[in-house]
Queue: 2 jobs
Job 1
Amino acid sequence: MKRWDVVVVLVALAVAGGLYFSGLLRADTPGGVAVVYVNGVEKARLSLLQDTEYRVETEHGYNIVVVKDGKAEIIDADCPDKICVNHKPISFRKESITCLPHKVVVEIEGGNENSVDAVVQ
Amino acid sequence: MRKKVAYYGIFAALSILMGYVEAIIPVPLPVPGIKLGLSNVIVLLALYVMGTKEAFYISIIRVFISALLFRGFLGFWYSMAGAFLSYIVMVLAMKSDKMSTIGVSVLGGIFHNLGQIAVAIIILGRTVVVYLVPVLMVSGVATGFAIGVVASYCTKYLQNRI
């Protein structure tokens, strides 16, 4: 062991600690947006940061989109199959809820990607 | 000269074997990318005992063959970037003559991980993985230290025999 070995180790640990605690690399900052499309046309952008309720009126009926605790879901609709209502709340980028009968799509933009769906070796 | 070819073969075979041994040791941590870096023992040995050019060739051969055997195409890019970056840094560290094998190995470990993160960012096309940087730096220091201790004992033993 020489003096520089110790220096290298200490500097590396200090840099790692600094990066960790500075929060500079914090990737898990929320900030996703739930975008509501009707028939492919953007109707509304709802930030996942604040709880809101949005009523989508379409020519076929309505859907009620709710943002709560950073997640978006459709809590009510008058479509026949109710697939959108039964869909789980979404929060990760690219996740979406589709109501086929009403041609309504709620998709998450920005924010975090579902970290499970990546493979690193 | 003929002897040198044999040493290339032995060192390359050893480092590929180390890669295999490492692949069958599970790492009990939930962070992707943490590895012991056993094959770096061999690259370090080659650096100190044979020379920089030889260590480079051995490192490249190792990356190619272990990618063919164990890792696959994506794994190839990860190992290649890691091996290349850590090789450059280790050569610079060794040439500076300021630190022992342990310091060189620690730097190699850190930059191996940084190289892999760089590739991960390119391949995954986003910066989510950067939050792994501090974790992988610390793991690079830890494994680099252990590998450096092993390598420094080995070099002492081998120095006068090759």
Job 2
Amino acid sequence: MSWMKDTFELTGSFLSAFKVTWKNLWRKPVTISYPDQKRVLSERQRATFALLTDPKTGEEKCTGCYICQNICPALVIKMEKEIINERGYAKTFYLDLSGCIFCELCVQCCPQDAIVMVRHWEIAEIKKENLVLDKKRLMENQKYPFSTIIGSKIREMQAVPKPPTASS
Amino acid sequence: MNTLFYSLVLLAGILLVVAYLTWLERKFAGRMQSRIGPQRVGKPWGLLQPIADGAKLLVKEDIIPQATDKTAYNLAPIVVILATTLVFVTIPLGKSVVLVDLNVGVLFILAISSLALIGIFMAGWGSANKYAILSAMRGVNQLISYEIPLVLACLVPVILAGSMKLSSIVLAQSKVWFIFYPFLGQIAFLIFLVSALAEANRIPFDITEAESELIAGYTVEYSGMKFAFLWLAEYIHLLAVSLVGSILFLGGWNGPWLPSGLWLALKTLLLFLLILWIRWSLVRIRLDQILALSWKVLFPLSLATLILAGGWSFIF
Amino acid sequence: MNLIAEQIETYKSIIETEGDTLLVNMGPQHPSTHGVLRLVLKLKGEEVVKIEPVIGYLHRGFEKLSENLTYIQIVPLTDRMDYLASITNELAYVLTIEKALKIEVPKKAIYLRVLTAELQRIVSHLVWLGTFGLDLGGALGGGSTLFLYCFREREIILDLFEEFSGARMMYNFNQIGGLRYQPPLDFFSKLKATLPKLKQAFAEYEEMLQENYVFKVRTKNIGVLEVSLAQRMGASGPVLRGSGLAYDIRKAYPYSGYENFEFEIPIGENGDCFDRAKVRILEMKQSLRIIQQALKGMPEGEVAIRPPVRVPTAVKVPAGETYMHIEAPRGDLGVFLVSDGTEKPYRLKWRAPSFSNLAVLPFISNGHKVADVMAILGSLDPVFGEVDR
């Protein structure tokens, strides 16, 4: 009569599975209907990049030091340097988002805090060449909110955290 | 003339109801899985989704692979959908709402619905695809083994009512529904449900589709409207199963207060939801286990139920 | 006429020698090969006579690429190997370099590493459980229900990771000598609020799968792996433990402060798919235990012994050989480093657990049905980013 036992066990297990799905039937869906609602992004979100200008003087921060180009593991940054008035500038700056692995090493290395990641992730393009960001588009990306991780800040972020009032 | 009009209305009605049953299934499954389900096409609750699906499948390119057996390949969807739709000829949809109330209604339904098996095998063979042929072989195995318990389970109401006519069966249940007959009714209903699930290729018996190993089984090479036919046939079959189940065991249109058609619709819907609930909560069983379940458990059990039913009708 | 007779003769001889078999080429594009595995199946009816896995469709030359990158640049690339458990890959690599450099990391970094590694183990096992449900139950049915439940819970943990590191899958979050940054201020409180949810979810999965008769029927006595075979093939992790050998590197060769934590090593009995599944589900619970301990004992202080590097060539490893292995969610993840004293490794060899676990497949799936092959493959849980590297 083993099949009788099997049959009873079968029915019982069906019921236990039904119980779980029944419970979940009345839960609120976790779906975020994307274009209507959007997720709250974390403050350290890594999405696309921006090159910064100094808010006081209005000058570009980037000095064309090639460090980000050298550290990039995916080799997506290409730049050329020019010197005007004894200060380096990036004459051209290309960042190929289609090959970028979003590892944040360029941000970590930048001695001038010139390159940062911004919290704007809707960067899909129809044409692949549009994913290559040139200097102009990187400068335009400044309008988006920055990620809180900025080259010189990482050192602070490794230290003992301060109470929230001190760090703003 | 009247018959022609009725059959056209019936056909259109079936297609519409089936289309919205797919919508219901998607919505139900969505909520069960903490999702929302269709919501974009047709703003409140995605109500136009089935129509969008149909339009998409209609305009899709019909790809016929080169190596296929053209006759079998092209004929299979028609055979399948014909076999499943013909069943509705004799199913009453309410008090005296029926195309032909055949004397041998139950027999007709069982005979015609098992014809779909031929269509499935044609699809599997004609596709010239290894996955498809494996799936077709599985399908034949499974459908033949589950035909017997299904027939035996359907015979229980027939014996109790003393007629194969569906309307007489419903009439016989006007006092007590067959499912409320102690032991007899419940076991027969359970056997009916399990074997009907197997006949309709639904989880946990959907080994013919089995997308985890056979991708999509016998439908793998179909596209466009032919695929839609095979897919619709599955749902029409389900609708037929729910209808027949509620007529044979749940008392058909018998019920207080509400009009007869509404009662039948309500019972059918409940049965359909039960099948959906089963589908979205269980995993698939293997082929040999399915066959073992049929021959070792359901077959003897249904024979015993049949004898019990005979005794019951003899005594009372 | 003669030609046809000849053909019939050849077919007859084939049938006599090989039997009436059907050759099915599953993959590399197939819904349940977990990526890009190709399986050459020889079937006799529904029964599998022979099975031959073909790998290499996701080969990206990771090891060779590492020889041309500096030690710092390799860290984000390790995320891409076992992409379901990125942090453990980073951890293995970073620990290797730290062992070669003989540096000690601060205590808070150690605790955070353990915490994140265990969270990652839960994430990885959740993905496994979901896809195992898909393998058994199909994409349209109970399998997908379980899959979506698992991903719902995984999402909660990924959100936490996102708050911590800014990325959801490829974190680049360990650095040589510690962590790249402190967790956000509300990280621990959020994590604490998450744990009961996870516990409840695990109970639900068990109800839905583990105690389920259909699940038992599909997995018991399927793909039985003997301990001796598992050891010979170098299987590790839940695959080995499912066969009944309590070998866990966290206990056998403790690293990164695992000796300070209390946990058990769940083992199976028969080494079938059911046992492997059971071991993984129990392991998730043990991971929760470790996380609770780590939260309780979380020290204050710095998380790195050195500031983040600013130049690519900042780290130079003295010449020599180093081997370090850790318990990744899939098993024994080893890194063998040969350095020649420059800023780039001379050779970096990875011992990927998925690769050794997958090697077991042809030995344990003969004689089973086609549907069982998927169950066995699912229970081995290979990730092809790691198998092919």
